[in-house]
Amino acid sequence: MKKSLQLIGEYYLLMRQVFQKPDKGRIFWKQYAVESQKLILDSIPIIGIISLFIGAVIVIQTANNMGNPFIPKMYVGYMARECLVLEFCSTMIALVLAGKIGSNIASEIGSMRITEQIDAMDMMGVNSANYLILPKIAASVTLSPFLMLISFFLGLIGGAAIVIFTGIITYSQYIDGLQFAFKVFYIYYSMIKMAVFGFLITSVAAFFGYYATGGSLGVGRSSTKAIVVSSVLILIFDLVLTELIL
Amino acid sequence: MIKANHLYKSFDGKPVLSDISIEYKPGECSLIIGASGSGKTVLLKTLVGLYKPDGGEIWYENKLLTALDSKSKKELHKEIGMLFQGSALFDFATVEENVMFPMNFFTDWSLEQKMERVNFCLKRVNLENVNKKMPSELSGGMQKRVGIARAIALNPKYLFCDEPNSGLDPSTSILIDNLIREITQEYGITTVINTHDMNSVLEIGDKVGFIYSGKLLWEGSSRDILKSECRELNDFVFASKMAKLLKSYV
């Protein structure tokens, strides 16, 4: 308990250091562009592949479980859309990102810590936390909601592809289902969740990397801790945000 | 001038520095020597403000480091250059970008002016045609030299070097030592070097402080060191067979 409180305190202090005005705006925006490429754009291929396949699987599973002839077939498309927008494209994608970019951030910053590169920045009078972490958080919070949109779109395409290839339901039934009782608010809800998850993933991973100790083994440990803690936090915040927003 | 008064530092209740008082003057290479684990690096990092002392004062001219707010501390850090044990070059940047890094933050120079300064600093440490190389493409000695070039990029008033010749062969070590001494004298920098290399002590040590179990046990010039009667210092200085043989001639 004491250790957890200490961690929360250290996290808060680090975030205070991170959320300060950057020394030079030009340098911040340059880093923002670099991190956007590294954290978000480079994640599109893996997110795309996962979304296409999961979209297809959701359609098959839903269709196989809706054997009742009184339930219209278009509900397969409706169910697939709701599953994707409400949970998969935000929470599941966030968990994937926690593994991909969380470990990347924790190991990158952790390696810089143990090789004294962070000390070197501090010695120059540069706010190392602000320079290294703020652009990552900014890129993740502002752009990960778009990853959610890409995932949603590709998930629906995956579903459509399996409908066309297998004929499990007709394409028009699938499209009717997608359009049925569509609530735009669910998209906003999912995007908000994704922005919060983006913050959690980057800030938690950066925190564990920034305070990494104990050589390369320590970097490995901090990377693992970053993934575990951010995954648990994603699930907790998923529940909290769902309760608050929906 | 840098002055430390009655410095104390401990980690998890274990004392690492105990009642250390020392003074460093401009234009001099002052060395901190001692065995591994004696507290040299902790002393150096405490002096530069990377560690907060548990007790005592650190003065940079008339500025009390231990009482500075973060903004003033940041200003002071702009006057300090530091060479780290492992060079600590940014592995995401080229040699040129490493040396330019502090300039990007703290000057409004144009790219041409920055490039001119980068080339001057690299030339000063006898490195040319490596601007576009990544740190991983350089040898240990070259990395140290880039580290020195980065440390002097903004004309520091104070230079701290943490084991500048660890992992280097004797001739490269002498090259690095001489470079640090030349830069110190040329720009009137207050230089503090942390080392356990006796060649460095004899080569460039204007003033030497011996740390033993976190205490400053001996202070003097590099000439006095061979005649010292401090048992712990003699055990450290004359640890090798060659040194013992040398002592018999002194």
What features would you describe in this structure?
The complex is a heterodimer of chains A (246) and B (250). Helix content of chain A is 85%, strand content 0%. Chain A is built from nine helices and no strands. Chain A has helices spanning 2-18, 25-40, 44-64, 74-114, 117-124, 128-166, 171-179, 184-210, 215-245. Chain A is elongated. By secondary structure, chain B is an alpha/beta fold. Chain B has a domain at 1-79 and 159-166 and 191-250: P-loop containing nucleotide triphosphate hydrolases (Rossmann fold), CATH 3.40.50.300. Chain B has helices spanning 40-48, 70-77, 95-106, 111-124, 140-151, 170-187, 198-204, 231-237, 241-249, and strands at residues 2-11, 14-24, 29-33, 55-60, 63-64, 80-83, 158-162, 190-195, 207-212, 215-220. In chain B, α6 (170-187) links the parallel β7 and β8 (190-195). Chain B is globular and about 55 Å long. The A-B interface holds A 23-24, 27, 111-112, 115-117, 119-120, 122-127 and B 45, 48, 50, 74-78, 80, 82, 84-86, 88-91, 101-102, 104-106.
Largest two-chain interface: A-B, 16 and 22 residues
What's the helical proportion of residues of chain A? over 70%
Strand content of chain A: under 5%
- Strands of the biggest beta sheet of chain B: in what spatial order? 6-7-8-3-9-10
Question: Could you tell me the radius of gyration of chain A in angstroms?
Answer: 21 Å
SS element count, helices of chain B = 9
CATH superfamily of the domain at 1-79 and 159-166 and 191-250 in chain B: P-loop containing nucleotide triphosphate hydrolases
Q: Using the 3D structure, state the CATH architecture of the domain at 1-79 and 159-166 and 191-250 in chain B.
A: 3-Layer(aba) Sandwich
The oligomerization state is heterodimer
By DSSP, the count of extended strands of chain B is 10
Could you name the ranges of chain B where pLDDT drops below 50 across 5 or more consecutive residues?
none
Element-level helix/strand string of chain B: EEEHEEHEHHHEHEHEEHH
Q: What is the radius of gyration of chain B computed over CA atoms, rounded to a whole number of angstroms?
A: 18 Å
Q: What order do the SSEs of chain A take from the amino end to the carboxyl end, as H and E?
A: HHHHHHHHH
For the record, give the distance between the C-alpha atoms at the N and C termini of chain B, rounded to a whole number.
33 Å
Number of helices of chain A: 9
Helix/sheet category of chain B: alpha/beta
Average of per-residue pLDDT values of chain B = 90
Total number of beta strands of chain A: 0
Largest sheet of chain A: none
